[in-house]
Amino acid sequence: MDQLMQGFKVRWTKDGKVRTSTVSYGKSSAEERRRELEGQGATGVEIVSVKPGEAL
Question: 14-27 pLDDT, tens per residue?
Fold first, then answer.
């Protein structure tokens, strides 16, 4: 049975623009990136579950 790896992307708003990460993260790395972005003044930061190769 093939098991798919779960990936996460991060979406946020900065300077009035909605942005989305171009890379997929593991859960803990996505949470770390969320904290970094919030520390840089980003708002509306959310972690979104994606399937391999899925674009947001």
Answer: 999 999 999 999 99
